[in-house]
Structures are given as structure tokens and as C-alpha cells.
Amino acid sequence: EIVMTQSPATLSVSPGERATLSCRASQSISKNLAWYQQKPGQAPRLLIHTSSTRATGVPARFSGSGSMTEFTLTISSLQSEDFAVYYCQQYNKWPPLFGPGTKVDLK
Amino acid sequence: VQLVESGGRLVRPGGSLRVSCEGSGFSFSDYTMNWVRQAPGKGPEWVSSISSGRSYINYADSVRGRFTISKDDAKNSLFLHMNSLRADDTAVYYCARDLLDRFGDFPSPFDLWGQGTLVSVSS
Predict the structure, then answer these.
(1) Do B110 and A46 touch (CB under 8 A)?
(2) Hey, are the CB atoms on A96 and B43 less than 8 Å from each other?
């Protein structure tokens, strides 16, 4: 089974700064990687799929990159509404697996 | 376009429960649907999938043999029947829609989620 890891566990950022989140797969997953944002008391929201394709309605400040085993989610200029937990998910093979998450909080 | 779950409650260990999800605003019968759960303070965990034509059904190892997924397209509804419940089944259960049609060969990201229903297993 593929293992997903994310780093850092917590990222402290000031509004307007750039945030870079990492996700690693234990084996190659091609570009079958998605990113989700989750705020307290809410369901996860799909941000990015196929490593770099933004989902409908997602602001352009969110971008994804990577392939094989190394992936990155970048928030170019953090807004107040972006403080949340971010999960990556592989869907290259069954079962679809989520990473443990990175919490982005206020510095 | 939304999904609304219901049916979560407190259940004793070893008990059974059925949770439901009703979709609206889209052609429910055309999509593969999933159950995803999230234990308190943990990341999401995929539980089960059922394809649009029920031609494939998949389960996580942690629930296989205890949980059964089903759907009623006439009622735009998805169900999860849970038996032999354990404390580690305690979680918010979300229904979620597949973004990509990968014909059951591969999983998909999930582009639409409900608000979740809480299942607590405790004596």
C-alpha cells in the first residue's frame, strides 16, 4: 500500500506571504495527486487535481506541481481565509489515500 | 448541487447502523459515489465506492466484510450499512462524488462533499 507523507506538520505564515506545502508518496503515482483544503467543522474542499489542475472556482493564488513521488502546493500570497488544514490524496491505485495534513496557521 | 448525509448517532460496540446521503442538483445516477470518514483530529479515510451502474464496488480493508454500500438512483440516495461496529469506527462520515470517471480501474479525486454525519461507537 502506498504511504503518503506531508511536511511540515504545521506552517506558520503571515498574511501576504508565500506558503509552500510538500507531499511525498512512497512509490510513483505519476500525476494522480489531489490537494484539499479543510476548515474547522467543514468538509474537505477539492483545490487541485492531476497534480496541477485547479478545481472549478479555486483562486489562481493556489498552484500545484510535481510528479512521481514529490509534490508541492503553493499559495502565492496567503489570505486570511486560507488558514486551514491541507491534505494531499493519491488516486493512482486502490485504495485512494490521504496524507496526514499540513496545518497553515497565523504567524 | 449538494449532498446531505443523515443517520449518524451513538451506537454500542457490536451494533449496527445505516447512514444515508441524498444528492440534488445533478444527475446522481451518472456518478460513482463514495463514503469517506474522518476520525476526530485525523485525516480523511476513504471507506467505500459504488459505480454509477453498480458494476463495481470497493471497500477499504478496515471495513470489508462489516460494511455494505448501496444506492437507490430513483431516490438519488446513497447508503452505508455498518455492522459489528467498533470504537475505531467513530468518525464523521461524508459522502463524496467522484470527479473523474475511471471505470473502476482507478480511484478518483472527490469534487463534491456533504456536510457529514457523526457516528460514535461507545458503551
Answers:
(1) yes
(2) no
Name the minimum distance, in Å, from the CA of B63 to any CA of chain A. Answer: 12
**Interface residues on A facing B, Cβ-Cβ cutoff 8 A:** 32, 34, 36, 42-46, 49, 55-56, 87, 89, 91-101
Nearest to A21 by CA among A80, A68, A83, A81: A83
Tell me which residue has cell 462520515: B93
pLDDT of B1 over the 80 cut: yes
How do A10-13 and A102-106 pair as beta strands? parallel
Q: What CA–CA distance (Å, rounded) separates B84 from B70? A: 18
In angstroms, what separates the C-alpha of B14 from chain A's closest C-alpha?
26
Chain B residues with CB under 8 Å of A49 CB are: 99-100, 109
Q: So what's the pLDDT on residue B58?
A: 95
Cα torsion angle, B35, A82, A4, A93, sign: positive
Buried b or exposed e, range B78-117, using 16+ CB within 10 angstroms = bbbebeebeeebbbbbbbbbbbbeeebeebbbbbbbbebb
Quote the CA–CA distance of A101 and B38 in Å, as a whole number. Answer: 12
Amino acid sitting at position A107: K
Q: What is the DSSP letter of B28?
A: G
Express each pLDDT in A8-25 by its tens digit.
999 999 999 999 999 999
The Cα-based distances of B105 to A1, A53, B55, B78 in angstroms read 16, 21, 11, 21
